[in-house]
Amino acid sequence: DVPDITIQGDENLLHQVWSNIFTNSIKFSSDGGTIEFFVEELESSVIISISDNGIGMEKEEMDRIFDRFYKVDTA
Fold first, then answer.
1. Element at 62 (helix H, strand E)
2. DSSP label at residue 2
3. 39 lies in which domain range?
4. Do 8 and 32 meet the contact criterion of CB atoms below 8 Å apart?
5. pLDDT in tens, 7-20
6. Which GO terms describe its biological process (predicted)?
7. Which of 15, 31, 50, 65 is most open to solvent, judged by the fewest CB atoms within 10 Å of its CB?
8. How crowded is residue 6: how many other Cβ atoms within 10 Å of its Cβ?
9. What is the pLDDT of residue 4?
10. End-to-end CA distance of the chain
11. Per-residue pLDDT for 1 more than 70?
12. 2 CB contacts (<8 Å, ≥6 apart)?
């Protein structure tokens, strides 16, 4: 059950963010893997959590995921 929520922002940028998140979850999960999407309303905020059974990220990589144009080396 997902609550009705409204997210304000640039429609194109929000679409790009969600597309990137789901594409990466699918791309880096194993065949037949599970991707879970959780939405929780907390006061005047919304908490969105996504988990998958992919390869994961090192802490150093996670510290930089919001740096513009940063990509994790998958080699």
1. helix 59-62
2. P
3. 1-75
4. no
5. 888 999 999 988 98
6. phosphorelay signal transduction system
7. 31
8. 5
9. 77
10. 38
11. no
12. 39
Q: What's the length of the chain?
A: 75
CATH, residue 55? 3.30.565.10
- pLDDT on residue 53: 81
**Which tens digits make up the pLDDT trace of 27-65?**
888 888 889 988 888 888 888 888 888 777 778 887 877
Q: How many domains does the chain have?
A: 1
**DSSP labels for 16-57?**
HHHHHHHHHHHHTSPTT--EEEEEEEETTEEEEEEEE-S---
d(CA 48, CA 37): 7
- Would the pTM count as exceeding 0.70? no
pLDDT at 3: 64
